[in-house]
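Reading a protein record of the kind used here takes little practice once its layout is understood. The reader may check this reading against the record printed directly beneath this paragraph.
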Amino acid sequence: MIPALTRLADRSARTPKRLWAIAFALFFTLAASWSAATPLGGSPDEHAHFIRAAAVARGQIGGPEVMVPHMVAGIEGKFAETGVQLPEWYKPLPKQHECYAWHEDKSASCAPAIGHSEKTVQVTTAAGRYHPAYYLVTGWPSLLVDGPKGLYLMRLMSAALCSALLASAVVTAAEWRRGRSVALLGVFTAATPMALYMAGMVNPSGGEIAAGILVWTALLSILMSPDPRLLGRRLARVGIGGLVLINIRPLGLIWFAGAVFFALLLAHRGVLRSVLRRKALWVWTALLGLATAGALLWARAHPDNSVINTPKTLTAKEAARQTFGNTETYVHQMLGYFGWLDTPAPAFTWLVWLGVIAVVTALGLAYGRMREAVALVGMLVAIVVVPVAAQASQAEQLGMVWQGRYLLPFAVGLPLMAVLICASRAPERGFPWRRLVGFGVAALALANAAAFFWALRRFAVGVNGPWVPFSAHWAPPGGWVLWTGVYTVAAFALVLPALVRDREPVEVEAPAEREGGTRSGRHSKVPAIG
C-alpha cells in the first residue's frame, strides 16, 4: 500500500506546475470544506468582513463614521464603525451568531434566517478602516449572487486566494534538493487547522497566515538552499507573499520584517552577496517599498477613533502579566480554536501538532550550528514576548483584545526554520528521516481531520450532543457526512508528496561561480537525506 501511494505521489509531484495545481486543489478543498461546514457569521467578526467586502465591491471604499455601543473582552465602549449603503438583508448579519456563540451546548440551528430584501439601507462595519485590497478580491461575487449563496461564494474566493499562496509554499519546499520530504513536513506543520479554518472564512487573517507561510518558505529557501536557477521565482514568491501580507493589515509589516530578520540569521555563507546582485531583488524591493508606503498612508488616514472604557487597573504592567499568563491559550488558538473562539480543537489535535513541532525543533537545535540554534531559541522567545509587548502597549486604549491567530503569520516560522535547518545540516545517514516524516504527516492529517469533525459536531448538535451527530439540529449544505469525508480524504491526500523519496544528487552549478561570472567547470553535489 505504501509503495503504491509513494508512486502516486511521485507522479503527482513530477513537475512544479502539476504539483502546484494538485496542492492548490487539495488546499482549496480543505478551506472550502471549512467554508461550507461553518455557519454564516460563525467565525470571529465575519459579519463585519462580509459587509466590508460587499461595500468595497460596490465602490464604497470609505464611508461616514458611526459610533456603535459595543463590548470587548467584558469592557464596554463605543466602536467607530463605517456606514455603507447595502441591500437590507445584510443588516441582520451581526445577529447571526449571537444565539449560539459562547453557548457551547447550543447548535447553530437557532440562528435567524437571512432575508431577501433588496431595499438599500445603511449598514455599519467595524472593518471599514482596513485596507480595501483583500475585500476587493473576496467581495465581487456579492455583485452576482445575493443572500447566503453570495456569502458562501465570498468565502470560496478567500479560500482560493489562500490556497494559491499555500500551494506556492509547497512547490518551494519541494524544490529543495536535499531534505525535500523534511522541508514539506515544515509546510504541512505550519498550515495548522486554524490556518485552514481562517482561509475558508471572509477574514483578513486567512490571507495573512497563508502569505506568512509562503514568505517564510521562500526566504529560507533562498538563503539556506541556494540555487541560481530557482532564485528568480523564489524572489517572486517572497514579493507576492510580502505584497499580500503588507496590504492586508499594518501588522503585516512587522511580520514581514521579522521573517526577513530571522532568515538573514540563518543565511549560509556567501549567499546574500549573490542574491544582492540580482536585479529582480531590487525590483521586488521597490514594489514592497511602495506597498509599505501605501499601507502606512492608508493606516494614517483611517485612524481608530473608538472609545473603550478600560478600567484604571488595566495598566501596561497588568496587561503584560495577564498576556504572559495566557501564552498557553494563545498557542492553542494558533493550532485550532474555532467559531467565536468558543470551539477548541480536541486535545488529540493539540498534542499531535505540539508533538511534531517539539520533535523538529529539538532536532533543529541538535543539528544546527550555534548561530542557527540561537535563532531557533530567539524565535521561541519571540512567540512569547511579542504578544506581551503588543498588548501591554495598547491595552489601556483597546483592552485585552489579543488572539493567537494574530501572531500566526509570524509563528509559522518556527517549524519551517527547524525543519529547514535539519534539511540543510543533518547527515545523510544516522537518523530515520523517512520514518519520521511518514509518521509525522500521517499524524498531522489525522489530527487535522479530527479537528474538522469536532468543530462540525459542535455546530451541528453542541458539545453535549451525541458524538456522532446523526440527528443534527444544524447541518451544512450537503450534510455533515459529505464534508467530513471530503475533508478527511483531502487531508491525507495533501501530505502524499512528503512520502516521495528525495531526488538523487544532481550536478548544479555553484551559485558563487554563476553569479560571479566565472566558469571554472567545477560543480557541487549535494547528498539527499530521507
